[in-house]
Amino acid sequence: MKKTAKMSVEVVTDIVCDKCGESLVPEIQKDSQENLNGFADFGVLKASFGYGSGRDGESFHFDLCETCFMELVNKVMNRR
Ligand SMILES: [Zn+2]
Fold it and tell me: Which of 15, 47, 58, 78 could serve as 24's disulfide partner, Cβ 3.0–4.6 Å?
């Protein structure tokens, strides 16, 4: 016998770019996946600043589409 319980579980239903607001998930994946908890095909920019830094305790997390991520990469790479 299977015992069951109704549970409310929070699942990822979409992931959008923090810069331009576009969805990071191809439509076909949204249709075929039950949830997007494991979806990881996008750029992530993370930083956390520690003790002694000017931004002590602050942390940042940005999910970015390929276009916005590459804009950022190009900015960093083109510095003089
Ligand atoms: Zn974007």
Answer: 15
